Every structure is written in structure tokens, then in C-alpha cells.
Amino acid sequence: MPQTGIPRRHFLRLGSVALTATVMFPWRHLEALAQGAAAPAGGPDMRLGAVDLTVQPILMHDRPQRVEGRSWRNWGGLQTPELVDEEAARIEGELQRLSRGAGFGLRLLPLARVTSPAQTEPLKGSAADVLLIYAAGAGTDTLNALAGLGKQMVIFVRYKSGPYYLWHEIVDSRFLRSHTDTIQQKQAGIDDVVVDDMEQVRWRLQALYGLRNTVGRRIVCVGGPGGWSWPTAPELARARFQLDMIDLPIPELSALIEAGRKNEALMEKCQRLARSYIDAEGVKLVTTEKAVREAFLLQQLFYQQMAKSDAFAVTVRGCMNSYAGIMPCMTLTLVNDEGYMAYCEGDFVTIPSGILLHFICGKPTYFCNPTWPHQGKMMFAHCTAPRRMDGKTLAPVELVTHYESDHGAATHIRFPQGQLLTILKPDFEAKNWLAMTGRILDNPYPDTCRAQVEVALHADTQEVIRNMRGFHCMLAYGDYTREIAYAANKVGIQVQVLKG
Q: In angstroms, rounded to a whole number, what is the distance separating the alpha carbons of residues 431 and 236?
């Protein structure tokens, strides 16, 4: 059977580690941004506040002894100590290559060798988040003992990439199904087994990296946490991901804005930031310069509040009526473009998917409204799209007003045609997310939220319609549907991936 969630002790440990890492993060970067510093050359770090995934590689093998006149060895190519040493060297080379090309924060512990349950004892105190088990040999009791450590598991077996591994034959029947016809193992499932291909290992670790940095994540919630038409969404987000939601009441934020407007030094800084932004290449001003300046004022206040709360994410609720006259749309764009996470409407139906996708892909995620799919196309829109959707470059933009109020500053982004997208549509009950891919067709401009993108869906239109759930969607550049499905399954969320 599929996993229904992270085992409780592991789930709690992940949350505490993520929160500890957030608290320990040096705040000089965020404080520098609050002082008006420019982004680093080459673009900002798009995974701010993240901690590395720690992996314990384990070579599990036999120590066969010849016995005349009877069977004395299992299947497998590691039949002598010399062959085991050669395999350990092969694994270490593979791990070095994996580390160099991971594309995310990865810490690999020294390779451990295990031949019996007793040899798993020293691993009980391991700081590892994940056990990467090279299952060359040893008995079912040994693999069960490793599962008993309560950590995530990725099981690698060889068929043709090196000496043959015993568990290529028996990982299903003996370990996962435990001599029955259904999956019995709670610590690992069919998606945790890889044959020969280290790239298949890499993307699984990337998914677990995203999950490790989502569980326990702290987020500032202007107006408190909520859920679009689903009041229990914050409780579900806490149950699935242990999100730590820090309430910032709207009157308190409004008072900070009014005080900020009276701070001459702060307003001069915001004016400089606004003027520099407006004058940059690829920017067209349609709204007022004052609205852009106030967007930067709110940005500075959000940075201060995130630093105060040891958070790297913010969401806004009750924003349709403005905060002391400031619509937060452009501010959310600015925050996302610096590598933090900023989401509209305080909607914890969808926000957890954005945090998870953000840390998996290392790029901003776009919280937006969907429309009705038709003729293989679907349009998405909101007033808060990031410009740096590829994680590096700022897309051309018109600075316009927020649509519904025709006030403040928002972004009409020019998304690149042909760009591949991941589209996530979480359900209200935090049980079944919909995931699919598509390519950008056009940047229409009807009377809707300002940042609009028309997408050619890879999935069949009617299949998409039949399986739509929830309301809001989350977009990111690239295809990360398999990583999302793998990671979400660990906390009891099934992801239906619609293919072309």
C-alpha cells in the first residue's frame, strides 16, 4: 500500500530541524536588503533559509563462507572481501559525482558497511535525514533493522551497473510485501527502489530535500492564516507539514506603515529603490511612482517582520481592501524575486504546495487563479507574479495597478513563449493534489488580474476538467511533477499526475 505519511518520530524530527536551521540562519542578508542593498551579482540565492539534506550511504552485503555439498551463497556479485572493497570504491565515486551535480544542498556522510542487524546499532544516533541503501546482500532482518531506524529510505540495487545485487530479486517479496500479497512495509514503498540509475536517486533526494525544508517552515501571516472557502486549511497544513504560522494583525501592519511614512530616512530609501527599479531595463511604468515607492515601503516592513520572526516566507490576507492604502501586489513580486516566499490571500489550501515546489525547484513559485480549460489551453492570472521565474533573470514588466481596485502597483509580466511549466492544483482536504505540465503560449491581457499567462496543456482537456480540485494553483518553470508526487506522498497526500 502507498505510504500515508512520515512516521511520527521522523516527522517531528524533520520539523524541529527545519525550525532550528531557520533560527540559526545569519540574518545579515535580509537585514542588508531591508537597508536597500542590491541583489548579489549573478542573482540571489533562491532557496534562502534552506538546510542541506544529510544522507547516510550504506553498503549492505553478505559475508559468505563456502560449505561443501550444500548451498552456501545467495545471488550477488560481492562474494569476497576484495570485491566488497572494490564496490565500496565504486560507490564512493558515484556519490562524489552525485554530490557535484545534485543542484541542491546535499551532505553525504561516510559510507557505512552493514552485514547484520547488530551492525545497524551505531546508526541509531546518525544525523542523517535519509538512508541511501546499496542493497547488495544480507538478510531481510538486516534491511528491516535499517527500516526500524525511522528515517527516509532510498534503496539502490544493481542489475547491470556493476556487480549484481541480491535485493534486485527480493526487495519486493521479502521486504516491501513481507511474504504477503500487499505492501506491508511502512518506512518505504515501491517508489523508493531504484535500479542502476543514479539520476533516479538524485531526483528522489531532491524531492526529500524539498520536503525537509518545508516541514516546520515558519511563515508570517498578515491578517492571520486562512483558506480560500475552506476554514480548516491552516489546521490541515499544520497536520501535514507542521507549518508555523506567525500572526501579524492587519491593524499592527497598518500602524507600521503609517510610522514608516513619517520616517524620512526610510522614505528616501524607498524612493531611491523605486526610482532605480523604474529606470531599469525592461520596466515600463503605467501606475504612479508613488505607488511603486509604497510597494518598496511594504517590502522593507515585510523584511523587518520576517527577520523579527525568524521566517523566510510571508502571506497576506484581507489584502483586497489594502493595508493603510497600500495594495501588496508588487511587494509580493519583489519579495519572491529575492529568493523568499510571498503568497497572496493567506490561502493555506495552496501555500504548502508553493513552499514545497519552491524548495524542490529552487525558483520562485507563482500563486494564481485558474480558469476553465478549453481546446487544450488554460489561462492563469493574478496580480503578484514573480519576474525572476527562472531563478536568475528579471522578465520584462509593466508596472500597473491592482486590477480589482485600480489602485497601487502590480506587475504585468511578459512570460517567455514556449517555457515549460509545472502546474499544481491542491485539493481543499489536503488529500489529493493535481499536477500537470504545459508550455506558455501567450501573454493575453483581458480584464482580469494583471499577470496573465495562457498555457498549452500537455494533458487532455477533458481529463483536466474531470480532475480539477480546490481553487488556486501554483506554477513554476520546469517539470517537477515526479518530485512533487514523491515528496507529497510522504506526508499522506496523493498527487495525480496527468501526462500528455
A: 10
